[in-house]
Amino acid sequence: MASTYSAEWRSVCEKFRRAQHLTDVESKKDPENDPFRSKYKAREVLKEIYNILKRYDSEDNESEQTGGDHDRDDDHDGEPGCGSAHPGDSAAGLRAARLGAIEYFLGVNHVETEELSAGEEHLMNCMKLLDKCLVSRENVSVFIQARNQLGILWAGRDEIEKAQGFLETAESIYLRYMKEDGQPPTDLAEFFVGEEEELSQQERTRRFEMAYTHTLYYLAQVYKNQEHYEKAGRYCHITLQRQLAFDQFVPLDWAINAATLSQYYITKSCYMEARHCLAAASVIAGLAGEVPSEAAAQESEAENEKREQLRQKRAEIARCWIKYCLNLLQDAKKLLEDNIGELDIERQEELKRARRREEEEKEQGRKSAVLFGSSETSDSICALEEKVSCALPLDFQEARAIFLVGQSHVAEAKEYFQMDGHVTDHIEILQDHSALFSALSFFEEDLERRCKMHKRRVDMLEPICKDLNAQYYLLICRQLQFELAETYYEMMDLKLALANKQDELDAHSIKKFNHLCNASIKYYQKFLDSIRSPEGKFPEKLEEDVLRPALVAKFRIARLHSRIISSDVSAQLQNLSRSLDCYNFVVHYCEENPEARKAVETELELSEEMVSLLPLKIERLRAKKASSN
């Protein structure tokens, strides 16, 4: 092979630099009608290099066969060669690595120009060349990056198991190399530079670790596609940690990925990890800079784009914080409620006694967990974590502290996701805000104050529900109608509990109570009407997604009609008859569709009981009315 100091080799290096410049710089300037022009030019240059290397290889092989001396000036003294047909021959290993590198660059070039089959062929050629060699400092980067690219290629074809095989092999190569050698290996670009242009050990390490970080990132996506969520979450976490450690991240992209990972941890009730991800996301997002003012955005298109991007991404992180607070409150509610949905005092006290021991154990586990941050950011992340608990709240004060954090993020998210332009997102944020109030109300012992919390829910959702066009937002309208019906229903139950503590209800209290009953009936009925056909006919068989809500709505309407307070016997009879009709609907539907029984077991049992009792009550009322006449 030509000496690394020869004019011919310097020409090869110059060709390689030109191919890189065409790929990395010039391609960004290519016109829309010829988007791959520079990459096609780079391909031709790479082919030239490949042909030169093949000629060198043939010449060196001839020299070896005749026993002649050949120029080894380009060997890497002191570095272990890779085994080949001639074990210990580092020159042969280096030739294979260089050819493999060019095959790799040609493969990537074809993939980037959407010629996947040709790209696959070059990448497989790269692997065949290297399969003759043992893993060494000279070729380990090529080994890993070729498999990374094949993993991406097969994942793009939805051949997830093939992608997994290439990526897991890349991972095992990295781990074995680090165990057996661990020194910074040769980077792919270094095969085509003079000694004076070789990279520093630090830069070699950075590039090698970046390649492995990509392996882990792609594996996280593969495991997610295979629904191996725990493994995917672990690989995603390690990827994010490495990106920070090796300074290989774009702040906003990293922050969004960390916030997204927090949502996985929430589903597993791993709130300490979820909080850490969110705190890190908020801190790292701050590294992207300040949001440009509206005036600056109007003057510059670039400033406007930056403003929109920063506002959107930070609003998305705020929404993840809302979900964190909401799920923390809701999980605590599930843990503390008794069989009728009220606070179990004995359970509450038991959990409070166990709190200290559990927190100590969690903190010990935390020290061995993979944490984010560098010396510059770790303090900021810790400070943000301290502002919100990761423990399930056990009383109103603890719940309120979490609620207030969630509510502050609601305000932040709504600043960007406004009703004008972001209808669906804005309403979802309002629904989460309503759910925060609902979860907090569980911890409130004062029934009047609890009722006021539900009133806040009504005040934020009712105007939206009235203004929204059901023709375009049918699903959202149904969600809002059902939630408003349930909120009014809960308020009615609270007022009923308060009424039971009084000797006698005054006219104002009766009017308020009846208003809540009628408002709940109205929204349940709106929900049921939304299920009707365009001709106004109620379906004989309910779709699975509305089966339980529809039957629950009928059951609740039945109960509400029976609760309305009236001194007029005729009105009482009318309400009880409507109540009986609704109970009958639930019973008859489940008789005709036995598969529906599981969806409404409790409601069905009570409906069957009321169907047998209400006719007697109605008859007594009719007799009373007849005798009074």
Automatic annotation (TrEMBL):
Primary subcellular site in the record, as a coarse category: cytoplasm
Keyword terms: Coiled coil, Cytoplasm, Cytoskeleton
InterPro entries: KBP
Any single GO CC term annotated in Swiss-Prot or TrEMBL for this entry: cytoskeleton
A Pfam family assignment: KBP_C
Biased composition (Basic and acidic residues): 67-79
Location(s) in or outside the cell: Cytoplasm, Cytoskeleton
Family label: Belongs to the KIF-binding protein family.
Protein name: KIF-binding protein
Species assigned in the record: Scleropages formosus
